[in-house]
Batch of 3 targets.
Target 1
Amino acid sequence: MGETAIDYFTYKPVRGAPEAAAAIFFIVAAILVWRIGRAQAARWMYILVGTALAEGIGYILRIMCINHISLGLYISMILFLLLPPNALALFNYKVVGEIARQSNVRPRHFYLRPKFITWFFFCSDVFSFMMQSIGGSMMAHDNMKVTGKWICVVGLAIQLGFLASFVVVAIIIGRDPQYTVICGPRQVNEAAAKRRVMWTIHATTGLLYVRSIYRLAEMIDGYGGKLYSAEWAFYVFDFAAILLMFILYIVFFVGHNFSRKANRFEQV
C-alpha cells in the first residue's frame, strides 16, 4: 500500500475546509487588488496581495496532500502555510516606517529613524523567514527532524522578539503628535487618520503574535504531539487569525493614507 495523508498529518484531514480556505484567500487577494488600484495606493501595499495568494496556494497544496500525498507536496504545503504570514509583519513594519519618513520628524533616538524601522525589522523578518524555511524543509526528513524542529523554534522565537520590539516603536510613534498621516476619504483630520492606521497596525500585529505563539507551541510540542494533531487548532489559530488580519486590512484600509497621487509617498 502507498502512503496516506494520515502518515504525514498524523490525523485524517477534514475535507471541504481547505477548499473553502483557498477560495477565501483568492477572493481576499482580488478585493485587495481592487482596493489598492482604486486608491492608487503605494505599490508596496501589494505585499498583502502576494501574501493572500501564497496562503491560497498553501491550501491548494493541502487539498493535493489529502488526495495524493507525497513528500514533496507535504514539504511545499508546510512552507506555504508557515512562511507567508512573515510578509504581513513586513507590511506593518513598512507602514510605521513610512509614517516616520513622511512626517519629517528629527528622531530623538536611532530606533525612530525611518530607514532603521523599515530595514532593521525587514532584515529581522528575512532572517526569521530563512530559519523557518530551512527548519521546515529539514523536518520532512527523519534523520533531520529534531534539528529542523529546533531551527524552526528559534526562528519563530526571534520573530516574536522582534515583533515585541516593533510594538514598542509603534506605540512611541503613535503617541507622538509630531508623527502624522495624510487623511483618507471621510477622515476628519490627520489625528483621526493616524489613530485609525495605528489601531489597524496594533490589532493585526496582535493577531500575528497569537498565530506565532501557536506555531511556536506546535513546534515545541513536536511532530505528532497533541497540538500538532489537533486540526481544529490549526484552523482557529492559523487560518482564522490570518483571515481576520486580512479582514482588518480590507475594512480599515490604509492605502488611502499612502497614495501614489502624492509625491511625498515614495518608497524608502
Target 2
Amino acid sequence: MNNLIGILGGMGPGATVDAMQKLINNTPANKDQDHIPTIAVSIPDIPDIPDIPDRTQCILNHGASPLDKMVQYLKILENAGAECIIIPCNTAHFWFDELKKRTHVEMISIIDTTCQLIKQQHLHAVGLLATTATCKAKIYQDNLSALGIACQIPDDTAQQAVMESIYAYKAGRIADAHRLLTPVRDRLLDAGVEKLILGCTELPLILQQDMASAPEHYIDATDALIKKTVEWYFAHSPRHPHHQGTPHHPIAA
C-alpha cells in the first residue's frame, strides 16, 4: 500500500487514539477514500508479547528498558508495509535514534518537529510540561538550546504534580488530572514564558477545554507531529498535486 503510515502506540492508548483522531482532522478529505492509510500498534499487554515497560521508570530508576519491545512492535508495522512510522509518546523518543537504526523506513520525530515549529513561530522562551524523564533527559531542552530558545521546566514539587496528573488521567481520574496540572501550568505562564509545550501526549487530553479557550498559550506536540506526518504523506503521494480536499476541523487543537 503506497505511503502507509504506521503508528507505534500504546504509550498510552488514549494518546494513540488522540493521534489518530488528529490525523483524520488534519487530512484534506472529501470522502473516505481521501484519508491517509494508517496502521497502528497499541498493545498494552497480550499473551506472548508483554507490555512495553514504563519509559519514565527506565530513564530515572534504571528499570526495564522498553527498547526491545518497541523494536518488536516497530517490526510489526514494518512487516505490515508501513513506509513512515511515528510514535505519539514524547518520552519514548529518548530511544528514537536507536529505533531509527532498527528500521528501513522513514520515521518522524515528535521532538524535532515540535522544536522546529517553535523556531518557525519566532519564540524565545517556552515552558515545558512533560514527564519527569523527558525533563531530566533534556530531550527538549538540548534541542531548543541548539536553536537559541530558552526552555523552563517546573520545580521538583510542581513536576511531581505533573506526574500525578498524567497517571491520574491514565487511571481514568480526569478531573483529578486537570486539578493537579492547572496550577503548574499557571505558574509557568506567570513566570513569563511565551508558550507551553505539551510534551507528553496525555497533556492535550487533560487540557483539552483549556486549549480550546486559550490556544495561544500552547504548543501541542502531538498536533505538530501529525501535521508533519500529513505533510510527509502528501509530499510522497501521487495524489498530492491534484488533491483539493479541505481539512476536517480538529476536535482538540
Target 3
Amino acid sequence: MSSGEILSQSEIDALLSAISTGEVSAEEIKKEEEQRKIKTYDFKRALRFSKEQIRSLTRIHENFARLLTTFFSAKLRTYVQINVASADQIPYEEFIRSIPKMTILYLYEVPPLDGRMLIEINPNIAYSMLDRVLGGTGTSVNKIDQLTDIETKIMNNLFEKAFEQLSEAWETIAQIDPVLKGFEVNPQFLQMVSPNETVVVISLNTTIGETSGMINICIPHILLEPIIPKLSVSYWMQTEKKETKPENISALKGKVKESELEIICELGQSEITVEEFLNLSVGDSIELNNRIDEPVVVKVGHIPKFFGQLGKRNKRLAVQILDVIKEGEKDEE
C-alpha cells in the first residue's frame, strides 16, 4: 500500500478488522511508513503553477466574485452571495469528470489572450436565476435536458452580461474582452484542451435566496502562460515609473499653443444708480473713471493680466502691451 493510494471503504474496514484481531499491528504499519520515504510523482498531475501564482489568481477572482454579487443582486432583486471556495490546478480530464453529466457550460474567448476558458454553472443556480428573471420566487427545478429555446436565450443573455465583469476583475494583469463562443449541457462534448493539460479551477460558492450551488471557472495553462510573470508578488508590489515620451510632450505643447483665449480690453469702469440706468436712452453718454491717456487693463479669460495702450495697426483697432500685472497688483488699486 503506497502513501498516495486512496483506500475504498471495504479496504478500510478490512484493515481495521486486521488491527483489532491482531493480524496486523499498528507498530508494523508505522515502521513500514517510516521505511518508505519515497514520494510518488504523478506526471499526469504536473504542477505548473506556484502557490504564489495560485494565490494571485484567487485574489483576482475574489474581486470577480464581489462584482458578480453586485451584478446579480441588482439584476435578480434578491439575496445573492458569491465567494471563492477554492482554487486548484488539476488535469483538464479530472475537471470534466468532477462536474455533473448534465450542467450549464459556457465557453469564452478572452482576446487578446489565446485559448478559451470554460465556465460551469450548477443547474440549481442557473434555474433559480432563470426563475427570478421570469418573475418567480427563485425556485430551482433541474430539467437541464429539457431546456426550451426561450429559456436558453434568456439564460445566455443573463450570463453573457454577467461574465463581462471578468474584464474589470482581470484589468490588473491583462486587458481582456470576454466573448461568449459556445453553450453546452454535456461536458463530454467539449474538448477544449488535451486531457492531460493543466488547468486552474476557481470554484465560486453561490447562494441565490435559499438555493446554493457552485460556479466553476476552468482556465487552461496555455491561456495564462503569457501573463504568468504578472501573477508574482514582485509584479504586484513594484511601482513602475511612467516616463512621458518627448514626442508626447511636444504634441501636448502644440495643442496648448493652438488653444483660443478670450482677450478683453477694459476701457474703464463707472457706477450709476438704478434710476439712472432705467432712464438711459440712445445718445446718452456714460463717464468712465479712466482718462483717455491712461493705460487700459487687458484681461485674459476675465482675469487682469496686462496694462495696454489702445491704438490702430493696419487700419484695425489694436492694443499694445505696456506691462504685466503682477498678482494682487490690480486688487491693491
